[in-house]
Amino acid sequence: MNPPTALAPETTIAIIGAGRLGGVLARAFRADGLTVHGPLRRGDEIPDADIALLCVPDAAISEAASAARPHATRIGHVSGATPLDDVDFSIHPLQTFTGTESADVFHGIGAAIAGRTPEDKNIAEQLARTLGARPFEVDDPHRAGYHAAASFASNFVLTVLDAAEQLAASAGIPGDEVRDLLAPLLRRTVDNWQSSGSTASLTGPIARGDEVTITRQRAAVDEADLALTSLFDELVTATRAIARQKVAV
């Protein structure tokens, strides 16, 4: 069987949910020549459509699905962690969105898909390919773990970067320069991780076994902000585990 292609041009999609992702999806599907209703706010009248795509908070999916069911042949959601209890399929673009992105933002990114039936999964894959995304399957039992991985790769990275900003500021680096100075280091680290993985890419005092420098760093963190000390300690412990793998290899 040939892999699914993009959706047929006559497909109609109702985007329910006018948040960041809903607006970007509506622009992207329109740019692909599809008929798009919305993004609709919850409570708006829902027109009949081939597909209703729910871009609402996870807790609102069940109610939104019930409201859309009489008006759509198939219903999907864009949640990364929520199972398919109330919908036919899901498609979760593996990207962070501010709501201002252009229609081509989906080109080349991953999109986690799932469906109750092969036909439902086929629709999810067609949606992903229409957007220019790369579909990959994640079933219900693994959705929470997959979504946690995405949080580590995006949300928690920002937590660590915020700590880096605070510590750089405490070292006297002007606040308006910190991100510009740290960004090249961050980009190279991500590039190295993408090509070689964490173990091969790890550098710095923990990788070298330089306990004197680690102790000095911890003292500096204590002096800058005691609230960051526990985060530093947890990260050192986790990074030591990576360093041990590096030695073992």
From TrEMBL:
Origin organism of this chain? Answer: Microbacterium murale
Q: What is the lineage of its organism?
A: Bacteria, Bacillati, Actinomycetota, Actinomycetes, Micrococcales
Question: What Pfam families would the database entry show?
Answer: DUF2520
All copies of domain DUF2520, residue ranges? 112-227
Q: Which PANTHER family match?
A: CONSERVED HYPOTHETICAL ALANINE AND LEUCINE RICH PROTEIN
- UniProt protein name: Oxidoreductase
- Membrane-crossing residue ranges in chain numbering: none
InterPro entries tied to this protein: 6-PGluconate_DH-like_C_sf, DUF2520, NAD(P)-bd_dom_sf, TM1727-like_C_sf
Q: Which SUPFAM superfamilies match?
A: 6-phosphogluconate dehydrogenase C-terminal domain-like, NAD(P)-binding Rossmann-fold domains
